[in-house]
Amino acid sequence: MFTNVDARGLSCPQPVIATKKALDSITDGVVVTIVDNEVSKENVIKFATANQCDVSCEQRNGAFYIRIAKSGSAEPSSTNNQPLVKSGNAPSGKVVYFINQDVLGQGSMDLGAVLMKSFFYTLTEMEDYPRSILFVNSGVYLTVEGSPVLELIKKLAARGVTILSCGTCLDYYKIKEKLAVGSVTNMYTIVGEMNSGPVVTL
Amino acid sequence: MNDTTALIQTVDFFTPIVDDPYLFGQIAAANSLSDVYAMGGVPLTAMNIVGFPIGVLDKEVLLAILQGGQNKVNEAGALIVGGHTIDDPEPKYGLSVTGTVHPDRVLTNAGAKPGDCLILTKPLGTGILATAARAEMFPDGVRAAMASMAMLNRLAAETAAQFSIHACTDITGFGLLGHLYEMTAASRVRAEIDSQSLPLLPDALSAAASGLVPVGAYTNRSYLKQVSFSPDVSEALRDIVFDPQTSGGLLYSLAEQEAVKLLTSLRAAGLKQSAIIGKIPEEGTGEIYVY
Question: How many Å apart are CA B203 and CA B240, to the nearest integer?
Fold first, then answer.
């Protein structure tokens, strides 16, 4: 099924909103968004890419025809109104990491801290990045100021990995103001993320 | 005026970037006052500049805009001494601000020196999140952006006044790299920016990656030819460094040792997202490298 979105003559961010509406109304199929300028073209392609759609674009008669294919297996584009970050350069890792404490494994806390650092270092060295990392409970200590792995997580974030820290947890430990990487999220988004791909719990 | 006091006069106004008229007044005033802070000065008096569709929009809207502006001028310790309103189909608001500064303490964008570090005092992404606001997406990031835009640069300027600053500018419509380029070109140096150290508003990266990038960011990007990027820098971050800011932070260039102390003081003063974002490695013709 084809849906055409004629966004010619519309200014930013209207073409993106129109494309979002069209994609939200279908579970799978193709949306073709037509725009008449470079900026709208770039923005619509970014939006579609962030929502795990296949995108191609051709130029005809001074307009850009952006073909966006959405498959039913991908999650809806409007998960809590927050399309996921997947920057143009990021590799297409699909794994979601769920980190629920500030050390890795059970046993010695000191050893656990060393292992966590080693884990993040190794992750930054890998070619395939996860799509997102979710931090809950004492795991949120890893994304705030003073975290021993902050620089490594920032590196992952800069490469397009979505970093999400549980807001309730940050509030509970009274460290929300110290959040130093990624954004604050809620259980709705966390569950949405976990349902959208293979989850690795640490 | 004399050996100890020089006058600074600035003017700035723009069209609404938020729906709430009181907040718009606050943001426009904070943005106008920022010019004085960027020159190292203290605001003294301000005059309102208003365009308003008289008889079309409710008078209450105009009052709310003016009250928002008054609120920020009060917070700056200055006085509104008058102003002028014209009938205009599109509302506009801003201030003409008069401030004072010691003639030896005037800051310009032309004094950056090799060996300097660069400090930015507010997080980036207001243009992208204002676009997200129009798309009714990323409400958390939008709220943070509104609060950041309404915040005066007073605290940053007062803190920096204790230090030996080589150059300063405020980050507005040309984006971080546009204003940095003005500084590096005027100072005849080159700059390196560590993209991972940039302070960002929440959701700014996600919103950029979702295509909520304002036209101005693309214009800034195509205009600045002196910028090069490491291939590691994501597309979303590239959008953010060109994102036009409204009432953005102050960008300081100062010697490395001083910069470390200033950063500590800024954070102690409550400007938690201040950060050292890069350095001035050597002389040059304004080139900027982002890694």
Answer: 11
What mean pLDDT, rounded, does chain B reach? 95
Same domain flag for A65 and A144? no
Question: Which domains occur in chain B, in start order?
Answer: 6-105 (3.30.1330.10), 116-290 (3.90.650.10)
CATH number at residue A40: 3.30.110.40
- Residues A105, A188, single domain; the answer is yes
**Rounded distance between C-alpha atoms, residue B184 and residue B121, angstroms:** 18
> d(Cα A7, Cα A40) in Å, to the nearest integer?
9
Q: What is the pLDDT of residue A88?
A: 37
More confident residue, B160 or A21: B160
Residues A196 and A123 in one domain: yes
For the residues B61-80, what does the mean pLDDT come to? 96
Q: What is the pLDDT of residues B223-238, one digit of tens each?
A: 998 999 999 899 999 9
A174 strand-pairing partners: none
CATH number at A193 reads 3.40.1260.10
Task: Give yes or no: residues A103 and A68 share one domain.
Answer: no
pTM, two decimal places: 0.71
- B213 in contact with chain A, both atoms CB, cutoff 8 A: yes
Which residues of A fall within a CB distance of 8 Å from B134?
13
Same domain flag for A105 and A73: no
Looking at the structure, tell me whether residues A189 and A132 fall in a common domain.
yes
Q: Is the pLDDT of residue A85 over 50?
A: no
From residue A199, alpha-carbon distances to A71, A95, A182, B238 in Å are 21, 6, 19, 30
| pLDDT one-digit tens code per residue, A152-199 | 999 888 888 889 999 999 999 999 889 999 888 888 788 888 887 788
Chain B hits for A88, CB-CB cut-off 8 Å, are 234-235
> Which residue from A83, A151, A159 is facing B234, i.e. has the nearest CB?
A159
Q: pLDDT tens for residues B245-258?
A: 999 999 999 999 99
Domain that holds residue A64: 2-77
Residues A180 and A134 placed together within one structural domain of the fold? yes
User: Structural domain tally of chain A?
Assistant: 2
Q: Which of A5, A11, A43, A176 is the best residue to mutate to test the B interface, defined by the most B CB atoms within 10 Å of its own CB?
A: A43
Model confidence band, residue A72 (pLDDT cutoffs 50, 70, 90): low
Partners of B96 in the β-ladder:
B11, B47
Q: Best residue in B206, B219, B272, B290 to probe A by mutation, most A CBs within 10 Å?
A: B206
Specify whether A117 is located in the same domain as A43: no
Residue that is last in its domain, among A31, A49, A77: A77
Q: How many contacts, defined by CB atoms under 8 Å, are there between A and B?
A: 104
Q: Is residue A137 part of a domain?
A: yes
